Amino acid sequence: MTAPSVGDVVVLTELDSEPQLLVTVVDGADDEVTGILLADLAEETIQRLEATAGDRQRRRKLTTAIRRAEDLMTFRVPVGELRQRDQPTTQGRDSLMGGNR
Predict the structure, then answer these.
(1) Distance CA 1, CA 94 (A)
(2) What is the pLDDT of residues 65-74, one digit of tens each?
(3) Sequence-ordered list of residues with C-beta below 8 angstroms from that of 96, at least 6 positions apart, any chain
(4) For the chain, what are the domain ranges?
(5) DSSP conformational letter for 86
(6) Alpha-carbon span 34 to 54, nearest angstrom
(7) Do the beta carbons of residue 18 and residue 11 sit within 8 Å?
(8) pTM value?
(9) CA dist 78 → 18, 30, 48, 51, 70 (Å)
(10) Quick one: CA dihedral 20, 24, 25, 26, positive or negative?
């Protein structure tokens, strides 16, 4: 898998439920990413992510703000345990919270 970028939503393949993770930090040296589970985000935050559909720069800025402002558990995951979703990550709600297979 190509390393994801900040703001991408990826799937954790090592867990049975394949939860979706919003990538907040990319560590290319260690081939790892840090992220927040989409399921842990508030509805308002999801709506704000939806508003960045098609705009990678806004998505990155919003992701950075979420990382700094939200008091959420983060996960550090090797890139090899992730897969890209079937749909672009800068689309709206259906691609954020909808089916990913």
Answers:
(1) 23
(2) 999 987 889 9
(3) 9, 20, 38, 46, 49, 50
(4) 9-85
(5) S
(6) 22
(7) yes
(8) 0.81
(9) 15, 8, 27, 29, 23
(10) positive
